[in-house]
From TrEMBL, chain A:
Membrane topology value: Multi-pass membrane protein
Gene that encodes it: cydD
Pfam families in alphabetical order: ABC_membrane, ABC_tran
Protein name stated in the entry: Thiol reductant ABC exporter subunit CydD
PROSITE patterns: ABC_TM1F, ABC_TRANSPORTER_2
Keyword Transmembrane helix: yes
Domain called ABC transporter: residue spans: 350-584
Transmembrane segments annotated in the record for this chain: 28-50, 70-87, 144-164, 170-191, 249-274
Entry's localization field: Cell membrane
Top-rank taxon, per record: Bacteria
Principal location listed in the UniProt entry: membrane
Keywords for this protein: ATP-binding, Membrane, Nucleotide-binding, Transmembrane, Transmembrane helix
Domain ABC transmembrane type-1: 30-312
From TrEMBL, chain B:
Entries under NCBIfam families matching the protein: CydC (TIGR02868)
SUPFAM superfamilies from the UniProt entry: ABC transporter transmembrane region, P-loop containing nucleoside triphosphate hydrolases
Gene: cydC
UniProt entry tagged with the keyword Coiled coil: yes
Top-level taxon of origin: Bacteria
Keywords recorded for this protein, A-Z: ATP-binding, Coiled coil, Membrane, Nucleotide-binding, Transmembrane, Transmembrane helix
InterPro entries assigned to the protein according to its UniProt record, in alphabetical order: AAA+_ATPase, ABC1_TM_dom, ABC1_TM_sf, ABC_CydC/D, ABC_transporter-like_ATP-bd, P-loop_NTPase, Type_1_exporter
UniProt keyword annotation of Magnesium present: no
Membrane topology category: Multi-pass membrane protein
Broad class of the protein's primary localization: membrane
Top-level taxonomy: Bacteria, Bacillati, Bacillota, Bacilli, Bacillales
Protein location: Cell membrane
UniProt-recorded name of the protein: Thiol reductant ABC exporter subunit CydC
Coiled-coil ranges (or none): 292-322
Transmembrane segments: 52-71, 128-153, 159-178, 244-262
Length: 590, 588
């Protein structure tokens, strides 16, 4: 249990200005203020009618003679809750609409940034932000405005009325509020501080269980998985006592809220009682004040109730906004296609001049001053140690990232990779091609949904998938991907090849497609792959040297720079970086 | 229910009762405060001669006012304390259930995040206690007490009130449960669909970008999302109406109370100072019934979590509690591993995963196992490790069947797997997992052997650096080295290497393999691999296909005898390239 889930830590009273910038927030604010004022008036009238009714009965009136008060009481009470109903409805509508806008913007951005952000933030985090995060944001947007408005208006209205009726009670209520708030904030801060101090141990303890589950097979192999049970119990116990220690403090702030509220009501009651004895006040106003006293504190108490829902929602809203506002110079997909279409031919020439790419987090490989030409239908192998920038270069050419500086020219015209018309020329095959949760047919036809059965059958044949498909109970209609039949790495790669055969785009980008496969599978894939390379511009990043024999040209990357390039024979004779790499790999193990 | 909830409730009923009692007292104090203050001012309005006449209610008001907060505080602590205890036990129980099938979780549950899902399910169940069981039962007790109090004054009215309040305590919550159950299910299904679609799209975002059809996905997604939004709006609307009606019912309740108490006073049955008391207290009493609907409404959500936990089967661990041969209590110096005509299938209807396999490995033998995925490599490893029992034939270690080694097997065989888990504790603790008795010097000695010592020394706190800080510093190869160090500490005579180098680049792979083979010299090695790099170091190479050996021999022998092997080897070591390099080298 994360501490963050516990309710009752001091509510933040800071007004979130950002909120007002959303469309329709200001009118909603005004409407809520109006309805809340009406609600407050109803609430006061309700207390007046009830007080009058009771004091009437107290002084011996007949029930029939107070029936008009009774009816009025009921009417204003219904009115009061109808106002609440209206406020909630208006706020829900606003929250719903705003959260939909947030989500739309978020998803749109997701497809502009694409795999880069999935790598950086993690797929799970992105998906849960789009699903759970948006719900939390909606909850926050829904709750925040009415709560703030209620706190601003209702206590003030009640206080005015109480002062007008009985100054003494007014004074008690007036003094309690700031004391209560100060105590809540102080205790909340103390709890927060204690939590921050222990944050590191907390993190370890709270993660311990899931960490143990993930490492279960390692524990098993080490022969301590049974023993580890004791550790789990011990850590769990430690976590509990630590949590309880913090809770003792954290709950104090709601203790303060309770304590001062109740004490204040008690003081009001006693003070009223004593002055009633003295005859300074009458029963009717005294009753009205007493009925109003709990209502005076109600908004503050409600503020504390959903405090964490609001906090989570605020955080989610911020994350959604931040993501949507991420800087990107990738071209927006909607405006991508106004340029005239593009077709890579055997005479095409692409020049990269001093192209540089820098990741925002400095740890990762960057590309520096890449000068490279791609010509016609040549086959270019990209090679280098891991971390040399091979994948980054592929991502750059594929348009998943865009260069920070340098120029790219296509047939002597300035040009950017990150456009839709370029991407539509390119087939990209990564190490682990993604299989959608769909039929094998839909997966193959992903890039060309309108392909005929015959075309698909040809692609299947070319990729060597027919053996697999013949064995599937549903044939081409077999579900694959998550939730469907699991394919082996080699079969996945064949599906990717079939996709590539089917859409037949003139440029082929490959990023380590065989590194993880067993050698027999790699051997069998080599033929269909070589067939796919025909009549295409091929850019192939790999560690596996045997592919280099089929390349027209090899580009060797070292620390994000091009170390050398040329045909395999040239590079070997040159005895440069490539030669060293090959020697290291071909040497015996020991 | 039976497995997960009942035992913890049985064990912790005292704590739960205490928590409920304290929270109940808190609510009673709040009601008591309003009741006595109504009584107080009515009494005072009679202008008694002496202030002492109202002294008791004054004390009552103050006491109730103070104790309400105290009880509330104590109640919350008590409930959290008990529930945290219950959660601890549930976690331990979950662990105990998963532990026997530790090696098969991944293949069994396909979805990678099953572990997080289960652990979150347990967290969800705390709300069952905190938000449903405790508030629900307290509200029902308050209901009973309130009716009893009324009964003292007027039995028939108490009966009427009991029936009327049933609307708030039973009928409205049940109606919401029935009404919302379907909507909740629809929303849950819909959200599940959204979750899958979106995960699919994010994982395949590169393909969507390349295809240029992103808009189409967004449109489709938007349509499903709209359905779920409409259902949610409907639910929300229903909730708003329900709350509105509940407030109306409370209003009517207040009116009934006022009329009744006026009536009672006029009949002289009740003192007129109690009118205000009853009218005030009914607000706080009936308010405590409002959360009931929400408490009940949540039930289907817990049901889902509970179902998932309950679906975990008990694993009968036939390979665990076998008669253990006492000779294995101590680590053996030398083990002869004998695989004799072993066949295995996972179930009656399956094909053979391993078929008629025979091998003899004396101490120190080195075997490479090659084959495509599904060829039976992992099954063979599990058979040798003894966590699977052969369908036919025997796997034995010095004559003892491998599956009868029980708890002693981990002292004889170590496994270096593809993705060893590094635990979220210090680097030192991670290493010490290999052998809890190892001294610091012994640990340093093995980290030096695997070539990690310098790297670890450079970490901010050396060996005491927490893994989550160091985790990103260790690369894939270094993580394997760390796991190798653990294995060296165990110093078992047999080591299974389960594709430890998948995903590493060739140079890292090469140096890692070199370290593995040097440090594990003298041990029996069973190396499952996907490349031929390094096979020349092995005594024997076997190729598995559909569970059968279809090629075997030493590297040199296979290179001579098998055309296929020659082709495969050429992928790892291209002949043309080798020749070129050779020419260049000899030129110098």
């Amino acid at each position: 249990m994360a501490l963050g889930k516990l309710d009752g830590v001091s509510p933040s009273l800071s007004m979130d200005r950002e909120l007002l910038s959303y469309r329709g927030a200001k009118p909603l604010f005004a409407l809520t203020a109006l309805l809340t004022t009406l609600q407050g008036l109803c609430l006061i009238l309700q207390a007046i009618f009830l007080g009058r009714m009771i004091s009437g009965l107290f002084s011996g009136k007949q029930i029939a003679s107070v029936s008009s008060d009774l009816l009025l009481f009921f009417i204003v009470m219904v009115c009061r809750y109808f106002m609440v109903f209206l406020i909630k409805r208006a706020c829900y509508k606003f929250a719903d609409r705003t959260s939909v806008e947030l989500r739309r913007a978020f998803l749109k951005k997701l497809f502009i940034i694409g795999p880069q952000s999935a790598k950086r933030e993690g797929t799970g985090a992105l998906v849960s932000l789009a699903l759970e995060g948006v719900l939390q944001a909606r909850r926050y947007l829904e709750l925040f405005i009415p709560k703030m408005v209620a706190n601003g208006i209702i206590p003030v209205l009640i206080l005015i009325y109480v002062f007008w009726t009985d100054r003494m009670s007014g004074l008690i209520l007036l003094i309690t509020m700031p004391v209560l708030i100060i105590f809540m904030i102080l205790l909340g801060l103390a709890a927060q501080k204690k939590m921050d101090d222990r944050w590191a141990s907390y993190r370890v303890l709270s993660n311990h269980f899931i960490d143990s589950l993930r490492g279960l097979s390692t524990l098993y192999y080490l022969g301590i998985s049974k023993l580890h049970m004791r550790t789990i119990n011990r850590v769990s116990d430690k976590y509990r006592s630590m949590t309880m220690g913090t809770l003792r403090l954290a709950f104090l702030s709601s203790f303060a809220l309770d304590f001062f509220t109740m004490l204040s009501i008690a003081f009001v009651a006693v003070a009223l009682g004593i002055r009633l004895v003295d005859g300074h006040i009458l029963l009717e106003p005294a009753l009205t004040v007493l009925i109003l006293a709990p209502e005076y504190f109600l908004p503050v108490r409600e503020l504390g109730q959903d405090y964490h829902a609001t906090l989570d929602g605020k955080e989610a809203t911020k994350q959604l906004k931040d993501y949507t506002n991420l800087p990107t110079d990738l071209e927006n997909m909607s405006e991508a296609d106004h340029q005239k279409s593009l077709r890579w031919t055997k005479h095409a020439l692409l020049k990269m001049h001093d192209v540089t790419f820098q990741y925002t987090d400095a740890e990762k490989t960057t590309l520096r001053e890449i000068n490279m030409n791609l010509r016609g239908l040549e086959k270019v192998g990209i090679i280098g140690a891991s971390g040399a920038g091979k994948s980054t270069l592929i991502d750059l050419i594929g348009g998943f990232i865009s260069a920070s500086s340098g120029t790219v020219q296509l047939n002597d015209q300035n040009f950017a990779f990150s456009t839709q018309r370029w991407r539509e020329q390119v087939t990209y095959i990564p190490q682990h091609p993604y299989l959608f949760s769909a039929t094998i047919r839909d997966n193959i036809a992903f890039y060309k949904p309108d392909a005929t059965d015959q075309q698909i059958a040809q692609a299947v044949q070319a990729a060597g998938l027919n053996g697999l498909i013949d064995h599937l109970p549903e044939g081409m209609d077999e579900q694959i991907g998550s939730g469907g039949r699991q394919l082996s790495g080699g079969q996945e790669q064949r599906v990717a090849l079939a996709r590539a055969f089917l859409c037949d785009r003139p440029i082929l980008l490959l990023d380590e497609p065989t590194a993880h496969l067993d050698i027999e599978t790699e051997y069998e894939l080599k033929q269909p792959m070589l067939q796919l390379f025909e009549n295409k511009l091929v850019i192939f990043a790999t560690h596996r040297l045997h592919w280099m024999e089929q390349m027209d040209r090899i580009v060797v990357l070292h620390n994000g720079k091009i170390a050398e390039s040329g045909t395999q024979d040239e590079l070997i004779r040159k005895k440069g970086a490539y030669f060293d790499m090959v020697c290291a790999q071909l040497e015996g193990l020991l | 229910m039976k497995e997960w909830l009942v035992p913890s409730v049985k064990r912790h009923w005292r704590g739960l009762l205490l928590a409920a009692f304290l929270s109940l007292m808190a609510l009673l104090c709040a009601s008591g405060l309003l009741f006595t203050s109504g009584f107080l001012i009515s009494k005072a309005a009679l202008r008694p001669e002496n202030i002492l006449m109202i002294y008791v209610p004054i004390v009552g008001v103050r006491t109730f006012g103070t104790f309400r907060a105290v009880f509330n505080y104590a109640g919350r602590l008590a409930s959290h304390n008990t529930i945290l205890r219950i959660l601890s036990e549930m976690r331990a129980h979950l662990y105990a259930k998963l532990e026997p099938s530790a090696l098969f979780i991944r293949s069994k549950y396909k979805t990678g995040n099953i572990l997080s899902v289960l652990s979150e399910d347990i967290e969800h169940l705390q709300d069952l206690f905190l938000r449903t069981v405790l508030p629900g039962s307290i509200a029902l007790v308050i209901y009973g007490l309130w009716i009893a109090v009324l009964g003292i004054f007027d039995r028939s009215f108490a009966l009427m009130m009991a029936l009327y309040l049933l609307i708030l305590t039973i009928i409205l919550p049940l109606l919401s449960l029935v009404q919302m159950k379907n909507d909740h299910r629809k929303i849950a299904q819909n959200r599940h669909q959204l979750y899958e679609q979106l995960t699919d799209a994010v994982l395949g975002s590169a393909d969507w970008m390349m295809s240029g059809r992103q808009e189409r996905f967004l449109d489709r997604y938007e349509k499903i999302e709209k359905k779920s939004r409409l259902a949610e709006a409907k639910l929300d609307g229903y909730r708003k109406w329900r709350d509105f009606i509940a407030q109306g019912l409370i209003g009517i309740c207040v009116m009934i109370m006022v009329i009744w108490s006026g009536h009672m006073v006029q009949n002289g049955v009740m003192d007129h100072t109690l009118i205000a008391a009853f009218a005030l207290v009914i607000f706080s009493i009936s308010e405590s019934f409002v959360p009931l609907s929400e408490a009940v409404e949540r039930l289907p959500q817990y049901q889902q979590s509970l179902n998932r936990l309950e679906q975990l089967e008990d694993v009968e661990d036939s390979t665990r509690e076998q008669i253990i041969n006492e000779q294995w209590r101590n680590q053996a110096k030398s083990i002869t591993l004998d695989v004799d005509h072993v066949s295995f299938k996972y179930s009656e209807t399956d094909d053979w995963a391993v078929h008629d396999l025979t091998l003899t490995l004396p101490q120190g033998a080195k075997l490479a196992v090659i084959g495509r995925s599904g060829a039976g490599k992992s099954t063979l490893a599990h058979l040798i490790y003894g966590v699977l029992e052969p369908t036919d034939g025997t796997v034995s270690l010095n004559g003892t069947p491998a599956h009868q080694m029980g708890a002693y097997r981990s002292a004889q065989i170590s496994v270096l797997s593809q993705d060893p888990h590094l635990f979220d504790t210090s680097v030192l603790n991670n290493l010490a997992l290999g052998s809890p008795d190892a001294t610091f010097d012994e640990i340093v000695a093995v980290t030096k052997q695997v070539g990690l010592h310098q790297l670890i020394e450079k970490l901010p706190e050396g060996y005491h650096t927490q893994m989550h800080e160091a985790g990103s510093i260790f690369s894939g190869g270094e993580r394997e080295r760390l796991a190798l160090a653990r294995i060296l500490l165990r110093d078992t005579p047999v080591v299974i290497l389960d594709e430890p180098t998948v995903g590493l680049d060739p140079l890292t792979e090469r140096t890692l393999l070199a370290t593995i083979f040097t440090t594990l010299e003298g041990k029996t090695l069973i190396w499952i691999t996907h490349h031929l790099m390094g096979t020349e170091q092995m005594d024997k190479v076997i190729f598995l296909e559909n569970g059968r050996v279809h090629l075997q021999g030493t590297h040199d022998h296979l290179l001579m005898a098998s055309e296929r092997y020659k082709h495969l080897y050429a992928l790892d070591v291209p002949q043309h390239l080798r020749q070129l390099v050779h020419e260049q080298k000899t030129e110098v």
